[in-house]
Known about the structure:
Blueprint: E1 3-12, E2 25-28, E3 31-33, H1 42-45, H2 49-57, E4 62-66, E5 79-86, H3 90-105, H4 110-124, H5 128-150
Antiparallel strand pairs: 1-2, 1-5, 2-3, 4-5
Helix pairs in contact: 3-5, 4-5
Amino acid sequence: METIRVKPVTIIGNCPANLTLESEVQIQGMNLGNPNGNPICFLALSHLPVSTWQLQSGSRFFAHSSCPGCITDLDDENRVVFLLGHEDKWELCKVISEYLQLSKQYEEPKQALKLKREAMQHQNHGEFPEALDKMKAALKEMQSAASSTED
């Protein structure tokens, strides 16, 4: 069974469990591993099983999942979005996640869209190193578009 890596990619507000963008845990079968001794949030873990099952079943190799948030003051939102992915495709998972985050904020340039489509074709054929190369190039296009928009 695949080892699933889990790490926060977005933290909205302040996480009461003190999770950071550097926190990471691993799921191996039914066991939770914490190789770096990072904080683990019980509430967040309660929302990961469906995504974990999809990854363990092989129907996907990455997913995003969000905890429900810990709201003590209704004016403040505290929520963490997690990236889950197969350990052997972790670099690709992180690049896809970063690309998706940028695509929510900025329009995707034509070249980035083309590279993303090519990456998806490679993924569909099980060609993950090639998909990683294409997604890295697509991410670079997105980053360039984002920086030129901010100027």
